[in-house]
Amino acid sequence: MTDSDSRDALIGAAREAAARAYAPYSGFHVGAALLLKNGDVVTGANVENASYGLTLCAETSAIAKIANEGWIAELAAVAIVGGRPDGEALLGSDPVHPCGRCRQILNEAAERSRTDIWVHCASGDGAQVASYRLSELLPAAFGPKDLGLIPD
Question: 44-96: per-residue pLDDT in tens?
């Protein structure tokens, strides 16, 4: 998914998800939108916890949704947006990239999908977008294929 209209729509869905984030501690809202192979979009937002280690990233929230629906092998692309809300919009001038844990979680779904998914990272204000293949963000990834669960 490299055409700009599809990418922008996915980023828009991630921005809407970020508006629903539960981030009382950091004040930093992150939304993720997953594009499935059938064209459906599933979203997630970060969910913080007073015990910081229990916080869920937006990507993890969205992947959990598709896994629970049996769609983990349907992932085609992801968009991530993050920033601080100002009451009207999400602010932030640098694209937000997935953390290492989320890169690994995305890789699990990407390997199941047999797709080197596109990861679109956007700033809160939408002015900056950086797009990568997941293999660029997580080279030499460890996943189901290494356990013999997915044939080459």
Answer: 999 999 999 999 999 999 999 999 999 999 999 999 999 999 877 788 889 99
Helix, strand, coil percentages for the chain (3-state, nearest 5): 35, 25, 40
Active-site annotation holds for 59: yes
Give the count of alpha carbons within 13 A of 93, CB side only: 0
Residue of 21, 36, 42, 44 lying closest to 92 (CA atoms):
21
User: What does 23-38 look like in DSSP terms, one character per residue?
Assistant: -TTT--EEEEEEEETT
Instruction: Exactly one of 48, 59, 74, 111 is catalytic; name it.
Output: 59
- Distance separating alpha carbons of residues 10 and 4, to the nearest angstrom: 10
- Domains delineated in the chain: 4-147 (3.40.140.10)
Residue indicated by tokens 């984030």: 21
Instruction: Provide the angle, in degrees to the nearest 10, between the axes of the packed helices 4-18 and 58-68.
Output: 100
Q: What angle do CA 40, 144, 11 make, to 5 degrees?
A: 30
State residue 2's pLDDT score.
Answer: 57
What digits encode the pLDDT tens for the residues 66-76? 999 999 999 99
